[in-house]
Amino acid sequence: MFNIDRSLNNKKAELLAYFRERASESLDEIKLSYGSTQFKERAAAINKAIVATKDNILAAVMQKALAEKWSNDAILRCCLMIAYCSYVVMIESRNDVWAYDYMAFSRRIGELWEPFCKLCFQHPLKKLTLFIPPLFSEVKQSLTDEIENYIDALGLSPDQKSQLKKYYAKVWGLVDSGEIKLESDLHFEQRREKFIIDFKSGFGSNEKGNTNRLLLVATIYKNLEARYRCLLLVRAAEDTNNHYFQTLKRSGIWEAYCGDETYGAIKKLSGFDLKAWIDSNIDWDNDLRSDTFEHLRRHHLDQYLKW
Question: Is the pTM of this model over 0.85?
Fold first, then answer.
C-alpha cells in the first residue's frame, strides 16, 4: 500500500497496481452476482467499484491535505494522478467485461475528461468562487416581473396594459420551460464576473439539437443583469472545422475553444497548466494494458485518447 503524501503525484506505478488489484477483487465478486451474458450489468458494476476506490483515495488525500495544510497545487497534482490512474484501470476493466465500440468509448471519454478538467477549478491556483446556477423558473419570473412593471408604468389604459401582458405571456408560451436547464458543467465567479463553462469532448456530425440548446441557454444568461461569460471548452482539436462548433464560436454569446486553446483557457482561469501536466504524466499507449490498447487502436478508438 502506498503512503498518502505530497509525492503521490509521482506514484503512477503504485496507483495503477493498487487500482488493478482492487478491480480484480471487485470483478471476482461481480461475477458471483452476474453471469457471463450479463455484460452490461458487469460493466456498470465494475465502473462503480473503481469510482468508489478512487473516491476513497481522494477522501484520504483531502483529509491529509487539510491536516498538513497542503497548497492547492500539491492537492491538485495528486488528485489529477489519482483520477488518471482510475481512468486507465476503468477502461481496461470495462473492456474486459464488455468490449468498447465507437459510441460507448466516445461517450465514456467525455464522461471522464470533463471531471478531470474540473479538478483545476475545484483546487484552483487563482482565486475563484463556485456558485449555484439560477433556476429557469426564477429567471422567467424575474423577467416577467420586470416587463410587467415596465408596462404598468406606461401611459396606457388598463385594457391596453392587460393586452400587452397577454402578448408577453404568449411569447413565453412558445418556450417549453420543462426543457430549459440553465445548469452547465461548471459555474464560478472571478473578479466580479460570472463564468458558465460547458465542457465537451467533441462534436459529432449531428449536434443541431445540442447546439440550439446551448445558444438558448447562453442567450438567457446574457439577458440577466449580472455579468455572465459563457465558455465552451472542447477537447478535440479537429473540431475547429466542425459546423456546429463554428456556429457557437461565431454566435457572439459563446466563447468557444478547442484543443490547445481549451487548455490555454483553463490555465488562464484556474492558474494551472493542465496541458503541461498531461504532457508530463499521461501516456495512454504505455499505461493501458497492451491488449486493451491494441483493441482501441484496432477499432480506431485511440483517437479519443489525444488529451
Answer: yes
